[in-house]
Design goal:
By secondary structure, this protein is an alpha/beta fold. Helix content is 17%, strand content 25%. Helix 2 crosses helix 4 and helix 4 packs parallel to helix 5.
């Protein structure tokens, strides 16, 4: 499985993928041998503990259809599953907050594979309601260089270590009420810099939303989605990623007409 994953990533990162896109493919970094890369899973498992937005009418459900030795003598297992699009580690398609933008199946696959920009805010004071600023982004660029177009930006808050404790992760566990949530994420000025000036492909975060918990206008979603920028939410295991040098492969369920969907995201780290 690992060999297959690396082979797919190598193909996507180094060759022109046959998809419709207005962006030039982002080249693989010089000296990055994907065949020896460390593969890190950035995905929380989906199960009965998976967290969804408080107003979601349902959650993840897995129902067993078969788990037995058949009359023919061989073992056979099969399940049926039901889940809202937005919950657990998942992708927000641009249409989520922007009319006439890409649905899940319309996102060019080369925008879901790219170099990772990891911005760490774990040491910020008052982190519970912190919003990434444009100054934070510029400070990162002073250390690492200008963020390139097509990059996959990942905001590391450390919140993934609170999963799946609903109260600690969301800041509130009142059923059906999203007005009391508290967790960090992107701020408006940082989003505008990353999306409209740097022209990144993806904004990702290890919290429940690319807007912070107390947001009432979801401005970061609106800025990003209007420019066909994808969101990745509830990412896991971000602690091992370097600020620069890793690659992200973020492939969701390809739901025709979908506004998002369950995501299996991995990072490829050079050795």
């Amino acid at each position: 499985m690992r060999t297959l994953l690396v082979s797919v990533a190598l193909l996507l990162a180094t060759a022109c993928v046959s998809v419709t896109t207005t962006e030039e493919p982002v080249p693989a970094p010089a000296g990055f041998d994907l065949s020896t890369a460390q593969v890190v899973d950035l995905t929380h498992s989906f199960d009965d503990k998976t967290l969804y937005w408080p107003t979601s009418p349902s959650a993840f459900e897995l129902r067993q259809l078969s788990h037995e030795v058949t009359p023919g003598g061989w073992f056979y297992a099969s399940n049926t599953l039901c889940t809202p699009e937005h919950g657990g580690t998942h992708l927000d398609a641009p249409i989520h907050f922007a009319e006439n933008r890409w649905t899940s199946d319309q996102i060019p696959v080369d925008r879901l594979v790219g170099p990772a920009v990891v911005i760490d805010v774990r040491d910020e004071p008052a982190l519970e309601d912190y919003r990434l600023t444009a100054d934070d982004v510029r400070a990162w660029e002073k250390r690492n260089g200008t963020i390139e177009a097509g990059a996959i930006v990942i905001l590391r808050t450390g919140w993934f270590t609170r999963w799946p404790d609903r109260l600690r992760y969301l800041g509130d566990d009142t059923p059906g009420d999203a007005s009391k949530l508290h967790f960090p994420s992107y701020g408006e000025d940082a989003a505008r810099l990353l999306v409209t000036e740097r022209k990144v492909a993806v904004l990702g975060v290890d919290t429940a939303s690319i807007d912070y918990g107390q947001s009432k206008d979801f401005i970061v979603h609106r800025i990003a989605n209007a420019e066909n920028v994808v969101g990745l939410e509830n990412l896991a295991n971000l602690d091992v990623l370097p600020e620069r040098g890793a690659w992200i492969v973020a492939l969701p369920m390809k739901i025709a007409g979908g506004s998002g969907g369950p995501l299996r995201a991995v990072a490829l780290l050079p050795q």
